[in-house]
Specification:
Layout lengths: L6 H6 L3 H15 L5 H15 L2 H13 L4 H6 L9 H16 L4 H10 L2 H23 L7
Helix pairs in contact: 3-4, 3-6, 3-8, 6-7, 6-8
Length: about 150
């Protein structure tokens, strides 16, 4: 039995040219250079900030597959949770971009210490992409699958 496609795909596929390009872009982010744990932590914090139940639901599963525990996934919405310094940085990048649309100097310095240039670019683009996707899903009224 073939699974039904996700609503995000069936909705965006109504604009075939855009959908084709978006699939490649989104796929590049999901299969990028960042560790899967970092990627999913950033996406989940972005889903929390944007209030996207759709992104949250899909990426909670992916986060679990990437090694995030159920407790860690539940704690993404708690800024005061005790996170290792590496995770704190990923969360801080998502926070800075959400609240200011930019990184503080301290966050940028920490980002430069941890990631190479492609990694820095990828993390920032990842958060920006999922912020955009949350807006698109909300505006187009894309519902979470059963």
């Amino acid at each position: 039995m073939k699974a039904n496609p996700q609503n995000v795909f069936t909705t965006l596929a109504r604009h075939p040219a855009l959908f084709k390009q978006w699939l490649g872009f989104g796929g590049a982010l999901l299969d990028g250079t960042l560790p899967a744990r970092d990627r999913e932590l950033a996406v989940l914090r972005t889903a929390y900030h944007t209030g996207s139940a759709y992104v949250w639901a899909h990426h909670a599963r992916l986060g679990s597959e990437a090694g995030l525990s159920d407790l860690e996934i539940a704690s993404v919405s708690h800024p005061d949770a005790l996170w290792p310094v590496e995770d704190q940085l990923v969360l801080q990048v998502a926070d800075d971009l959400h609240y200011a649309g930019d990184l503080t100097d301290a966050t940028w310095t920490a980002l430069c210490d941890r990631y190479d240039e492609p990694g820095r670019i990828e993390l920032i683009v990842l958060v920006a992409h999922y912020t955009m996707l949350a807006l698109v899903l909300r505006t187009l009224r894309v519902e979470l699958e059963e």
